[in-house]
């Protein structure tokens, strides 16, 4: 029996494609040369492709709701639960960092690329390994790693609130979601913290709980009113996207439509979306530098280069996904030795 959530897979697949193409439009020089061929498309991806992150945030909250009902604390201690989440994120994260550092060093030493990060310091590496680089003000080593740190913060905060007894868990999550939407998300200086993003994550979490509520439609109406109030206080496209996504998932769950299954390629893309999200920046640097050296001009060839980056990112993400399954999934390998392995991988790149 297939227990995958088809609509969730479809959203993850779409978000994966959008975020990769957003970065292809955002980072040059290929997009600069290809833009005259389709300026409206490149400009749209540049400005709005990043909204895909809101889909990932909502989906993460929604999936947590399915695995952790409010007020029913798992037998696993909270610190151990967060530690397991950290380890599961760490292997593909560390692999992507190693690749980004090696590619950046190679590009700087040979072909050159304007967006290649500088050689990392030990402090910078340690901050990335602990997923606190943005909190400490360290320069990021890759385009996607900030999200991993935020995801861990959100998971830790949400699972702590979910352990409150009974309806207190729902009330606490709803209150923090409202605080984030109505205040924290309007303060750019908080964007390195979970408080800035908890509005989107919390709407997904509340929408996931709604179908199990005594009055599911009233619970979904509460999510709808919360999002509407946030947009009335200050319109933000990113919050509108998160709000619509949370309501869509809540409605599909309440009406029993979660059984729909997308095409197999879409389910596969959803499965590899996280490693693709992590690894595509290194691929973009490598291909972008090579393309700029081989063909300094020409819109068509650079548009083809962008398409090549997309395909290679999917393949690299699939490879990283297989590595993660081999290292993390077996019970015998799931422990803090994984953190030591990740630290060693990063150390070898310096």
TrEMBL record:
Segments traversing the membrane: 12-30, 45-65, 86-104, 144-161, 168-186, 192-210, 217-235, 241-260, 267-294, 300-320, 332-349
Keyword entries, A-Z: Cell membrane, Membrane, Transmembrane, Transmembrane helix
Keyword Transmembrane helix tagged: yes
Keyword match Transmembrane: yes
InterPro entries: Acyl_transf_3_dom
Compartmental location: Cell membrane
Domain Acyltransferase: 8-315
Membrane topology: Multi-pass membrane protein
Record family assignment: Belongs to the acyltransferase 3 family.
PANTHER family: O-ACETYLTRANSFERASE WECH
Name by which UniProt lists this protein: Acyltransferase 3 domain-containing protein
Organism: Pseudorhodoferax aquiterrae
